[in-house]
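Subject: sequence -> structure tokens, single chain

Hey, anyone have a minute? Need the predicted structure for the following. Not urgent.
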Amino acid sequence: MTALFLRIVLLFSVSPLAYADTPVLLPDKLQMTRPAIAYQPREYVPTDEASTLSDEQIIADLQLLAATGFRSLVTYSATGAMGKIPGIARKEGFDETIIMGIWDPFSSDEWRNAVQNAPFVDGYCVGNEGLGIRYTPEELAVKMEELRQLTGKPVTTSEPIDTYISGPHKEWLLKHSDWLFPIAHPYWADHVDPAKGVAWVVAYHDLLVASSNRQVMLKEVGFPTIFPAELNERLQIGFFRLLDSHRMSFFFFEAFDQPWKGNTIEGHSVEAHWGIFRADGTPKKVVPWITKKWDEL
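Reply:
Had a minute. Here:
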């Protein structure tokens, strides 16, 4: 870990003074004293126009997650019934940080739902891994500022953690984000050993905190199971145990396995198996540990 961290620092270090004039969101603005979860409803396939999502499905999911111990969540879209999630979550016991995601910044449906949910959310994440791909930095900056003005809530976006430290958009991300909300998956950095994976996450997290002088909450941190064969639930719980010992603010990725992802993302079958629950709602080995740990607080 030390060698990795030093190599990252030498190659990609950024002076905190470079962003001294950017707004800093104080840590007490987004409180997470209990675990947080990245939530995409099970049994709902966003790529299938025939797929439906009811309030009852959302309620069942959120009751299951609340019973596990989660009190904060982040969503990925505000379209259709997804736009009801923050309000339902508040009724089901999610009384800490709720971040509402907007997948398509140009969707009038998502925009309307996002604004209407302002009383229920603590902040917004506009876009997800789409900067320079699905929208330009200029376009996204305009939409983010518009949402701030309409709701009075902090707004951010989300990209892989290394892009906040190096790459063409690093200055833009620090300038336009009210807090930093990176994605950090060691699997995609070729780390399938839990200890090495956590070391990778911690190195990047700590470097970003030190170099930006900003609040950092990890939007997605996870460890897949089942596929490929060397990944399993025992390693997943080991990964989260180690990660939790570092006292970082992070959202468990993700609530439920998503089989549709394995069929639609070419070459990425592993995407279907990141849940802490299986697609049918049955718990993986990490769930009893989460419940027990936070029941003891």
